[in-house]
Specification:
The protein has 17 helices and 20 strands. The protein is α+β, with helices and mostly antiparallel strands and 483 residues long. The model has no long low-confidence stretch (mean pLDDT 94). It holds the Pfam family Fer2.
Length: 483
Amino acid sequence: MSAIRFLLNGHERAVEGVAPTATVLEHLRRTERLTGTKEGCAEGDCGACTILLSEPDGEGSLRRRAVNACILFMPALHGKSVETVESLRAPDGTPHPVQRALVEHHASQCGFCTPGFAMQLHAGWIAGGLPAGDRAAVKDLVSGNLCRCTGYGPIVDAGLALADVAVPDTAGADAATARRLEALRGDDVFDYQAPAGRWLSPPDVDTLADLYAAHPDAQLVAGATDVGLWVTKGHRALPLLIDVANVADLRHVEEGPHALYFGAAVTHAEARPHLARLHPDLDELMRRFAGYQTRNSGTVGGNIANGSPIGDLAPALIALGARVHLRRGDAMRQLPLEDFFLAYGRQDRERGEFVVALEVPLLDPAERYAVSKISKRFDSDISAVLAAFKLRFEGDVVAEARLAFGGMAGTPARASTAEAALLGRRFSREAARDAAEALAEDFQPLTDMRASAGYRLLVAGNAIERFRLELEGSVPTRIREVA
């Protein structure tokens, strides 16, 4: 195909010739002159560029997501619908309920961030996700949006007011839009070529395996929440990209009797309810995982395959004993997740091999689990240290220990010496202290902008003691947010 075909505020577009790494934000502002969508950070942090992206859900309706336009590549729009802030008001100029709420609650100061907040609140409102009186839910909804005028109070008030406004029935319109988008998308590989590069988007995993085997130097991309920064901040040229986000086989979650199976293209937002049922700490981790829009785009497979030493998901899953499933051509293999990470920037993945799924064991009644995220900012921030622990007890003695950390080494890793300090012992204050002291043998962390080496070792050890106190139940260990 020679054109990227999509709907923009209800109108069909066919875009040709743009680079595959041109961002949606650039196109909206420079070509479409829809300047309500702002550029604040160009790295998916501030939410000023928030748009609503919709696609067929396979059941005759739409799957809607609020996403960041600044790191979304243009070919990713193919067969989808984009709504910008300009689409909110009615054709006769009547303000949208979200716009009225923002005005009535004086929720705009300089106004630069307001369009992004408006689109994020709209996304939550249209999905029925604004329960009456739930201030914490509104704050979570806008966690990926920054207001430099510090006007969050009135913005949250506007979101609370929307909970009392009836959501229109869009079932018929959504079904019609889904049919239009399916016709635009087609059933074959989307092969977009432009002078600056090429974008391939296969519909199924077998085609993906064939394409990646034929083009092992291609850059795989899903939500582009990290690859997008390679372009916007690093100015890297990516001449060939293979998009895995539309591979239906990679977008399923299966709950088996002993494990959860997450397809590599499952987004963090889609994974959260399944992980939450596994353990409440995983729900809290995913609530704080990046920002709302990033969770709507980023995928579990991308987070693992990226191999970042400060990615939150890897240590949380390593502690659970997760396994990664890989494919190269027709060959399949799996290995423990901790063995996938070899060194900084290097994983046990051959040319043409890609992540298919993550297998996450369910917790046994004799096992106890906890996750601690330490970061400078509560919302939408990268961890200085991510600690995840699983202990299996026989009576009151530790029979198995898995202590996993992010931010402590060049890769997410287990603390084998600290684990050994706990085995065969009661999980007492002395045992926790010995494990904390053993961390210095397991890790020699770096000092960087997020934390010093000494701080990292200290808080990692403190996380072990907090886990002990939480299991003991003697004192509160976590500050609960006041709405």
